[in-house]
Design brief:
globular, 3 domains, FAD/NAD(P)-binding domain, 24 strands
Amino acid sequence: MGRRVLVLGGGTGGTLVANRLHRSLPRDEAEITVVDADDRHLYQPGLLFVPFGLSRPSALVRSRRAQLHPGIDFRQSAVDRVDLEAEQVVLQDGTAHSYDVLVVATGARLVPEETEGLTGPGWGSSVHTFYSLPGAAALSAALPTFEGGRLVVNMVDMPVKCPVAPLEFCFLADWYFHERGIRDRVEISYVTSLDGAFTKATCNRELSGLLAEKGVEVVTEFNTGQVDGEAGKLISYDGRQVGFDLAVMVPLHGGAPYVSRSPGLGDELGFVPTDEATLQAKAAPNVFVIGDATDLRVSKAGSVAHFQGEVLVRNIRRFLAGDALDASFDGHTNCFIESGFGKALLIDYNDDVEPVPGHFPGRFGLPLLRESRLNHLGKLAFQSLYWHALLPGRDIPGLTSAMPLAGKRLDAATSA
């Protein structure tokens, strides 16, 4: 009987890891099981487009089970807890599953209830989020009836999934209201807990310039402590207030609830402390973590899970063989940023090199840190690539865990 590899979570990270392992390990060497509470795999990057009528909710969801290669077992049940000492996972359906290797891939969840008033009066009418499928669908119904006033996009605090998505929403809102002919009646404000539009200096300058060009106000270092939906205002912990007619919130995020019920596994937010280079959990040597479930500072973006998956699968194979782990994950992140009017930017960076101009993946590739129609088309094409290449665990030319330096203008920024 092969060694038991148990993957908790059938999202991006869990699915691609299970499929990559299945492709690379002999059938008699490992029994791979994926566990998730439901059979609905959501293409999360598509949520951004739903409020503007650019994508339909039904086009973003497919069966989790159907994304797994034949031979991978799928168990539909929520996780109750992980027992690290017994090397066992207890599911909420009452069954217990032992493992030789555990992969934690249960991502991050929204916890809007942690912000006072956010889910109170106004929630779903004047206060929305596009970070969930129901929220994006509700917002798609609210935007067409918005005839003017102040639209506030608020990222409550880091970490969040896809940190550039709130900026993309601002850019698309600018485009959307121009198309409706009412842009002059809409004030758009981006309110963030950060000290700038983005965390990387060179990219922040570019994005801040774009926001200014598009007439989007940026309010920084605003730590939202309360949302008053009735009065239409955000209130920060230091007493500052930002009024709104329509608020689009990016709520606080936390890890999966079972992490906090599993002694020794996670931190106070429910994320799993992880070695940044090997992706091995700090809790136990036979536990690995991928994607949004980690406590790493790296962006919680889909591309990161893809790049991590390459290293993580290699390390699971090495662990099973008794070999030293590969400490090569460098924080590689790659992201298209929709900027409206059929254009987008592309950024590509890692722990040592921040986003810079140039081209990706080489001298004649897609333009970096510059608006282009080509990047917009690339973002649209990624949805097909996601379902047919990334999730099945196939290698994608030019998209590897090691960040490429060819084509980058490294003189345009200092190392991070």
